[in-house]
Design a protein that fits this description.
Number of domains: 3
Number of strands: 0
Structural class: mainly alpha
Helix content: 55-70%
Number of helices: 15
Shape: elongated
Radius of gyration: 25 Å
Length: about 280
């Protein structure tokens, strides 16, 4: 209807009342309608896509424009142009040395939903974090923290689960799972939060990909000092003991490798009891 009347994109923006200041942009259902109209407009006027997006850049603030581009990427007619603009934006953000946490929100990734790990923009942001950390060795930021902050533990469980379903994002999902668990231990999250996120056996497997058992025990000892994480650590230690059992670790070898590690003797004693029971004639 609007297209047949030659309504311009900014006219439809006002007709849909997207310019109302008191309504959060991402919560306005008309946003998808507007971007769908943009798609129809571009199909009819393919030579005007650059002008249209440039005009939007002068009318919308950074966050609103990024949210529009995020939706626009779902349409083949606009995906290439929208991705190019966002890539250029990310380079400018890096040049200005903006915090990855701020950029996460500015790009609208805090409302990207539980398919965020499949989103090309999220992968670009991951690279942004990597480049930022190289540029700022004394100010390191984790790309897992904004996920936990904006999606909470239940939300991160969903987004990791969704990403695990696709072969193209399994690697990213496993990396996110590992990073989130490490973050939970570093920030001494309550055990109930972490249990909602992953199974203990999976947690230990993920940790052992980045840390040897000596480093793990040191990490556990540090977390055990906090009453809120003591139970979590006990369960993680139990899962690690089960892992040793599956690998048929020799108690004497563990004693040598874990010598001088606090509380290692108690853990090895627990393991030896299980090991002997398993190998009893």
């Amino acid at each position: 209807m609007w297209l047949s009347r030659e309504k311009f994109v900014d006219d439809v923006y006002k007709l849909l009342k997207l310019d109302y200041p008191n309504v959060p942009f991402y919560e306005n259902l008309a946003l998808n309608t507007w971007v769908a109209y943009m798609n129809a407009f571009v199909k009819e006027n393919p030579d005007k896509i650059s002008t249209m997006l440039s005009t939007l850049g002068s009318q919308l603030n950074e966050r609103k424009l990024n949210q529009v581009l995020l939706v626009a990427q779902k349409y083949p007619s606009m995906k290439s142009a929208a991705t190019k603009i966002q890539t250029e934006k990310i380079l400018r953000y890096l040049a200005s040395n903006q915090s990855p946490k701020e950029i996460f929100t500015l790009l609208g990734l805090d409302h990207a939903g539980d398919t965020i790990l499949r989103n090309p923009l999220f992968k670009s942001w991951m690279n942004y974090v990597k480049d930022f950390n190289k540029k700022n060795p004394k100010h390191q930021e984790s790309w897992a923290e904004p996920l936990r902050t904006h999606y909470q533990w239940y939300g991160t469980q969903k987004l990791v689960g969704r990403a695990m379903q696709s072969p193209s994002t399994v690697k990213t999902a496993k990396l996110a799972e590992k990073k989130l668990l490490k973050l939970a231990l570093d920030q001494e999250e309550p055990p109930t939060n972490v249990f909602k996120f992953m199974y203990l056996d999976e947690a230990v497997d993920g940790l052992r990909k980045s840390y040897n058992d000596k480093a793990l025990l040191k990490m556990f000892n540090a977390a055990k000092k906090n009453p809120s994480t003591a139970k979590l650590v006990d369960n993680l230690q139990g899962a690690l003991i089960n892992k040793w059992l599956a690998l048929k670790k020799q108690p004497e070898d563990l004693k040598v490798f874990l010598s001088n590690v606090a509380l290692a003797d108690a853990m090895i004693a627990r393991y030896t009891k299980k090991f002997d029971a398993t190998h009893a004639s």
